[in-house]
Amino acid sequence: MATTFFRRLAKATPPSFTDAFGGQPKAGFAGFRFSAIAAVAGGISSYYYFSESNLVHLDQINEETGPKVALKSDKWIGFKLQDTARVSHNTQLFRFSFDPTSKLGLDVASCILTRAPLGQDAEGKTKYVIRPYTPISDPDAKGYFDLLIKVYPEGKMSQHFASLKPGDVVEVKGPIEKLRYSPNMKKHIGMIAGGTGITPMLQVIEAILKKPDDNTQVSLLYANVSPDDILQKAYLVLVKIL
Length: 242
What we know:
By secondary structure, the chain is an alpha+beta fold. 18% of the residues lie in helices and 29% in strands. The longest helix is centred in the last third of the chain and has 13 residues.
C-alpha cells in the first residue's frame, strides 16, 4: 500500500505534501497573512568521523513528561526507508518509519543531521559524509518523517539517498535548532529560500496554518533555476490566492 500511495503522490499536484500524506488541511486560509524580518537559514555541510552505528532506539519517556521520541541529540539512530516518490526531474521524497506510537522529536524550526559512510581514512577508520535536512512532515506526526531532497550529480549525500531502496537504513541525529518558533512570536516573518531551501520555510508556514489564533504574517521570496524546479508550486499558489 505504501508503494501505491507514493506513486499516486508523485503524479499528483496536491496543495501540500502534508495533505497528500493523509493530513488534514487547515481551514480558513483566507486569514493567512505573510510578513517580518526573520530568516530561517539552512544547515552547514561538513565531514565527521564516527564509529558507532545504532538502529532505531527510542527514548522511553514517562507519559507524565511527554510522548516517546525517536531522535537522540547525542547518538546516531538508524531509520528505515519506507518508500520514495519522484517530485520533480531532480528531486525525490523519502519517507522513513519508526515506532508508530512515537514522535520524531523535532521542534519548529529545526533540522536533523544525516550521515553515510564514505570510505576509510589513513588509519582504516570509517569516514562519513554528513548533511543537514529539514523534514517537511508534520512534527507532531507519529511513526514517520519525510525528507524532500534534490539529487545533485556530484552530491555525495544526495547520491547516497538516491541509491537507497525500501528497507535500507540511514543514520540520523538531532534535532538541530534553527529558530524556536512559537505562535505570534513575531508580527511579520520574512523568508528567503532557493530550491530545497524551501523546506524549513514550509515547516514554519505549516505551523502557522495549524493554529487558527496565530496571526503571524509571512513574506516569502523563493528563487529557482527554472519553473520546473519550483517545489510545492500548487501549494504556494493556493496560499497566495487565498
